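Researcher: Go.
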Amino acid sequence: MRYASNLALAVSSALFAVAALVACGRSDESDGAPAAAFADPPATDAMRLGALRKAALANGFVRAGELAVPVVPARHDVGRLIFASPIMSLNGQISCQDCHLDQFGSADGLPNAIGVGGEGAGAARLHSGGRILPRNVLPFWGRGSRGFDTFFWDGRVQKVNGRVVSQFGVQAPSKDPMIVAAHLPSVEVREMVTDTPQIRDELMSENVGTAASIQSTLARRFAADPAIGPKLAAVYGLPRDRLSFREVTDALASFIRFNFRIKPTKFERFVHDNGPLSQREMAGGVLFYGRGRCAACHGGPYFSDMKFHSVAFPQAGFGKNGFGVDEGRYNTTLDPKDRFLFRTPPLYNVAKTAPYSHSGSVVRLEDAIVAHFDPLRLVDTREMTVRERSDLYARLGTASRETLPSALTDDEIRQLTAFLRTLSF
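Model: Structure:
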């Protein structure tokens, strides 16, 4: 397994054997019934549950409290105001909160995000006439917590060997990748600036100087705001006219770290406190760490290896590269081997953050699972253009080099989905 240690490999092998025992159990039972409620011998259930606990621990699962990064309460409090303020956008109309909403699990519930000109939430925002962005909004759960140092679908900000690698090059505004990541949305033209001919002429060069110009303007606006400026200045011990965008993003990062921290889940209570799982949840967990091979990429404390892989999801929207194409990690590294690769998405609260994939092309969690082993089930190639089929074939070729899971039955998919719901809080 790509992520596992020798212990994880041994446990995974055991789970392949245990999976056969799970298959012998009834598949039509309700999700809510505890595993011990069924007629299997107690020793069999005990072996299944024990193997699942060992597999989780061997693959890096830890208590939520071990991931939290301490934040200064006053910084978190002013960061909350910044998160909800449209001052964060150059046009003064869009806040972080407009695309990261509680009712959509800290995402926006849309396939592709809506930037400048967008109004409302969910479907209302989709039909408001705002600028469509090429990718699906990522939820914030765990961002900036301990060991969560790779950001965005393409990893354009990440910590490598103790150094922050980003679009800022050697001029990165912080050694904290979370703070660097917080600098970027404010300078995305269609996302939080404004998409007009004048702006395109003046700002589309997207260099560090351009970003600094926009962010200096935003910092002055925050400093002048009567609700935010005095609090921001007090928190950092600076006069208001000395505040920079560095303080703005530091406070914002503190809020995100605190408000979207990982919290205890049903699965944590099972692993660490001997809490119950239903028969279906247990079977799904055994599949996840065993024959389904999910943990090969979805391992570690966030259920992500923080690496880059290819899954041949359908493409929705015009794509980062235009014409319905998104070359993923390649756009950051320019390495041909990185075409169509995207960072493994973490799985906490995954049941609450539909739609799925980099372009939000899959609405159901069950179909997101299917895409990993039978992606052609999700498309009708007869309805695709030659260009769309050609792009699909290229993505299929890249995906074929990954560690592919075994083909799963519909009931096994439901079991996996039940397990993934135990990661919600």
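Model: DSSP finds 16 helices and five strands in the chain.
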